[in-house]
C-alpha cells in the first residue's frame, strides 16, 4: 500500500482534473472530493499512475522551489522583506523622534522638510532603472511655507533610452508630463549636472554637508524617487539620500500640531494629499510647464501643492498665519473664519461660512474646495501669477521666468502641442542658472535646437 500522503496528493491532482472537466457542477472542493472519490476508488494502479507521477514530480519541484522560486532564493526574498519592514520602522522612528524633539523644544514651526517629486520617461526591467524626466524639490517649514530660494527644479536628460523603450516613453510623456523623450545619448544627457546641483541644493539649504536630511515622496512616486536617487548616488558618488514617506510625515505633523490626536491613521493624511485641492493652480509650474496644457503634471507644481496642503492643514494649529504665495496660493483668501474644533476627521464637512476659499484647513469636501472650480469663476481667488510675483527664479530653478517669457515667441497663441517647443534662448538662460556654464541647456537639445 502506498504511503497515505503520496496517495492523497495523487488524488488531489485527479480531483482538480475531475472538477475542470465539469465546470459549474460543484459549489466547493468538498463536493468535488466526494464525487471524484467514488471514481478514484474504482481506478486501478495503472489508471492512478499519471496522477501519482505528477504528485511526485510536483513534490520534487516544490522542494527545489524552496530555494529557486522564479529564480530567486526564498531565504533571500524573506531577508529582503524583513529589511523592508525594518527600514519602514526606522523611517517611522526617525519621523516620530524628529517631530517629538521639535515639539519639545518649541521649534516645530521652524523644522525644515524636503518634499520631492520625479517625473519619468520609462522603467526598464532589464536594468531595473527609472529614466527621470524632471525633478522638483521643495524645502519648507510651517513658519515660512515655501520660498523661492528653497526650491529646486530641473528637466532631466537621461541620454538614449534602452532599445525598444522609446514608444513607451513617448506614451508616458503624452499621458503625463509631456516632456519629449531623449533621442541622443550625447546631446540629451545632463544627469551628472542634475545630480551635482541636486546634492548641492540639499547640502546648501540644509546647512550641513556632512549629514543630508531625508527627502519625502508620495507613496505613488516613492519607487521612482528611491530608484533615481540611488542611481545618482551610485553613478556619481554622492552620499545616499534617504527617501521617506510623505504621507507618514504629514500624519505625524498634523497630529503634533495639536495636543490631541487629530488623525487616527496615516491613511487620512494620504487621503488629504490625494484630494490635491490645488491641482488647478497652474502657475506654480516650472517655466517648461507653465504654458503647457499639463501644468499640474510639473514636478515643481507637485511639490508646491504638497507644501500648500500641509501648511493649510497644520499652520493654524501652531498659531501661524497663512501667507499667500508661501503657505497657500498667492491670491488665496486667508480671512475665512476657522471652526473652533478640529477634532473631526479631515473629510468632515459642516461649513456654512464658505465663501470661495482656496484653502479650507481640511474641512471642506473636495468639490467645495476644488481650486480649479473656484479659480475659474471666483473674484476672491484667481490663479497665482507666479511670474508676476517674482516666480521661482532661485539659483536652483532651471530658468529665470522673467528672462524666459520674452523669449517665447509663441506665448500668445499656444496650442495644446506648442508648449513643447522651446525657445532657442532657453539654452543660454539655463546654462547661466544651471551652474556657471557647466550645462548645455536643459531642454533645447530635445528639440534639435
Ligand atoms: Zn515642470
Automatic annotation (TrEMBL):
Coiled coil: none annotated. GO terms for molecular function: sequence-specific DNA binding. Residues 332-351 are annotated as: Disordered. Its main location: cytoplasm. Keywords: Cytoplasm, Developmental protein, Differentiation, DNA-binding, Meiosis, Nucleus, RNA-mediated gene silencing. Residues 4-59 bind DNA. GO terms for cellular component: nucleus; P granule. It is found in: Cytoplasm; Nucleus. This is HMG box domain-containing protein. It comes from Aquatica leii.
Amino acid at each position: 500500500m502506498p504511503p497515505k500522503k503520496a496517495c492523497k496528493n495523487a488524488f488531489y491532482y485527479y480531483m482538480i482534473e475531475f472538477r475542470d472537466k465539469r465546470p459549474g457542477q460543484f459549489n466547493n472542493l468538498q463536493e468535488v472530493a466526494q464525487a471524484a472519490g467514488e471514481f478514484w476508488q474504482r481506478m486501478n494502479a495503472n489508471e492512478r499512475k499519471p496522477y501519482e507521477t505528477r504528485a511526485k514530480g510536483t513534490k520534487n519541484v516544490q522542494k527545489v522551489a524552496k530555494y529557486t522560486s522564479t529564480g530567486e532564493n526564498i531565504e533571500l526574498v524573506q531577508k529582503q522583506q524583513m529589511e523592508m519592514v525594518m527600514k519602514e520602522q526606522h523611517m517611522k522612528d526617525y519621523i516620530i523622534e524628529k517631530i517629538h524633539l521639535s515639539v519639545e523644544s518649541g521649534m516645530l514651526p521652524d523644522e525644515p522638510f524636503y518634499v520631492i517629486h520625479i517625473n519619468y520617461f520609462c522603467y526598464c526591467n532589464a536594468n531595473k532603472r527609472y529614466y527621470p524626466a524632471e525633478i522638483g524639490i521643495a524645502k519648507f517649514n510651517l513658519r515660512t511655507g515655501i520660498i523661492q530660494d528653497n526650491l529646486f527644479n530641473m528637466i532631466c536628460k537621461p541620454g538614449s533610452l534602452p532599445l525598444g523603450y522609446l514608444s513607451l516613453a513617448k506614451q508616458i510623456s503624452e499621458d503625463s508630463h509631456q516632456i519629449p523623450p531623449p533621442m541622443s545619448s550625447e546631446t540629451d544627457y545632463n544627469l551628472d549636472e542634475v545630480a551635482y546641483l541636486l546634492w548641492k541644493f540639499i547640502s546648501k539649504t540644509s546647512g550641513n554637508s556632512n549629514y543630508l536630511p531625508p527627502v519625502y515622496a508620495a507613496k505613488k512616486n516613492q519607487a521612482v524617487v528611491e530608484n533615481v536617487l540611488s542611481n545618482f548616488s551610485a553613478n556619481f558618488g554622492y552620499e545616499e539620500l534617504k527617501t521617506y514617506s510623505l504621507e507618514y510625515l504629514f500624519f505625524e505633523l498634523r497630529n503634533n500640531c495639536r495636543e490631541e490626536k487629530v488623525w487616527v491613521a496615516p491613511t487620512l493624511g494620504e487621503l488629504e494629499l490625494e484630494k490635491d485641492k490645488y491641482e488647478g493652480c497652474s502657475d506654480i509650474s516650472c517655466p517648461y510647464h507653465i504654458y503647457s496644457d499639463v501644468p499640474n503634471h510639473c514636478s515643481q507644481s507637485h511639490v508646491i501643492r504638497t507644501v500648500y496642503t500641509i501648511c493649510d492643514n497644520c499652520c493654524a494649529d501652531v498659531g501661524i498665519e497663512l501667507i499667500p504665495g508661501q503657505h497657500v496660493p498667492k491670491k488665496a483668501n486667508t480671512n475665512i473664519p476657522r471652526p473652533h474644533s478640529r477634532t473631526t476627521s479631515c473629510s468632515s464637512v459642516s461649513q456654512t461660512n464658505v465663501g470661495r476659499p482656496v484653502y479650507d484647513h481640511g474641512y471642506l469636501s473636495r468639490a467645495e474646495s476644488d481650486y480649479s472650480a473656484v479659480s475659474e469663476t471666483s473674484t476672491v481667488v484667481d490663479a497665482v501669477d507666479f511670474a508676476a510675483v517674482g516666480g521661482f527664479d532661485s539659483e536652483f530653478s532651471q530658468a529665470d521666468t522673467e528672462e524666459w517669457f520674452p523669449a517665447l515667441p509663441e506665448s500668445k497663441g499656444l496650442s495644446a502641442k506648442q508648449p513643447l517647443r522651446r525657445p532657442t534662448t532657453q539654452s543660454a538662460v539655463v546654462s547661466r542658472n544651471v551652474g556657471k556654464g557647466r550645462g548645455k541647456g536643459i531642454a533645447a537639445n530635445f528639440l534639435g535646437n
